[in-house]
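Structure (tokenized):
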């Protein structure tokens, strides 16, 4: 048993990138929160090397505890015989039906089946993802911890005095599963403005234009710029067909903006009781939620208040404590 009071951890990341850094942002926050209570260093995959070479190199950065933060599960095969944590954010790519049988088998084997053999504990961001891990891979429930994504400190409460004359609906993210199509159909002839952060598909852009829907499009935003988008909007739309967690739900709630999200999966788990839940396949349901929030100030305020209480569960300090408890649990276990 390691009697040192402070666990030593390596966070393993995919290759460094300038955009799409949600995983890095989550664990950078955890590292900052745990400064002085855990020694955490970072190790990144080298984009110049193959996955095999990166896997073989992983042992060079091994620590008392090794935490694979997501998207590079295969690194666990280079860390066998150690105290390893793997964070699984979702199974969206694994479940994507467009992949060939061969590609699915490869992903099944080298992203999950083989790496999971060398993992001490898997953390998942929702009960929704936990259920899928058990169903797809029969992973022992006793070795799974549900630790949600944290609200980063940049997303802070900002009072909204009144709605814009043309209410602004913020949507974050790209891909058909994000359901911009449903939002477009729902807001046709409604008199709103869509603030879209992402890369809409050509058919979505054409529909926005042909329907005459007021909109702006931006991308590659920093966290501070995303925060500004939250402050400027009147409500957030995230009625996706699939999310492993739904981070914008709690970010918007922490800022003090009401949320419209789906009544399915992780989005229902994260937002139920604090957001307006809609059927993502029903544009009329989405439209009704938008018009209710825009036209009923009492409902708007109550939804904001429920959201603030909900977001407190995901405060970065609360989540970081959960990771520290897990690190200490493994730290105090006999070495492998």
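Design, position by position:
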């Amino acid at each position: 048993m390691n009697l040192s009071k402070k666990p030593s951890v390596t966070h393993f990341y995919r290759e460094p990138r300038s955009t799409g850094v949600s995983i890095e942002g989550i664990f950078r926050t955890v590292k900052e929160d745990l400064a002085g209570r855990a020694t955490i260093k970072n190790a990144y995959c080298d984009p110049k090397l193959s996955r095999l070479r990166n896997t073989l190199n992983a042992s060079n950065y091994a620590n008392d505890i090794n935490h694979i933060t997501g998207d590079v599960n295969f690194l666990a095969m280079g860390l066998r015989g150690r105290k390893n944590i793997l964070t699984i954010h979702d199974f969206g790519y694994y479940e994507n039906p467009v992949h060939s049988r061969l590609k699915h088998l490869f992903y099944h084997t080298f992203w999950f089946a083989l790496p999971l053999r060398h993992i001490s504990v898997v953390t998942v961001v929702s009960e929704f993802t936990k259920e899928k891990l058990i169903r797809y891979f029969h992973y022992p429930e006793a070795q799974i911890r549900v630790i949600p994504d944290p609200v980063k400190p940049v997303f802070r409460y900002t009072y909204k005095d009144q709605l814009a004359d043309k209410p602004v609906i913020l949507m974050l993210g790209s891909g058909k599963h994000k359901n911009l199509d449903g939002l477009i159909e729902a807001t046709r002839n409604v008199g709103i403005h869509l603030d879209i952060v992402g890369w809409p598909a050509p058919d979505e852009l054409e529909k926005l234009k042909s329907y005459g829907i007021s909109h702006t499009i931006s991308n590659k935003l920093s966290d501070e710029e995303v925060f500004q988008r939250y402050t400027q909007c009147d409500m957030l739309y995230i009625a996706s067909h699939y999310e492993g967690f739904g981070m914008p739900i709690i970010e918007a709630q922490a800022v003090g903006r009401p949320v419209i999200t789906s009544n399915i999966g992780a989005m229902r788990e994260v937002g139920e009781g604090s957001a307006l839940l809609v059927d993502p396949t029903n544009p009329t349901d989405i439209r009704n939620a938008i018009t209710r929030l825009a036209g009923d100030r009492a409902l708007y305020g109550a939804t904001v208040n429920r959201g603030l209480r909900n977001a407190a569960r995901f405060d970065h300090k609360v989540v970081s404590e959960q990771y520290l408890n897990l690190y200490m649990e493994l730290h105090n276990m006999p070495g492998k």
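Reviewer-requested clarification: The mean pLDDT is 95. The chain has 13 helices and twelve strands.
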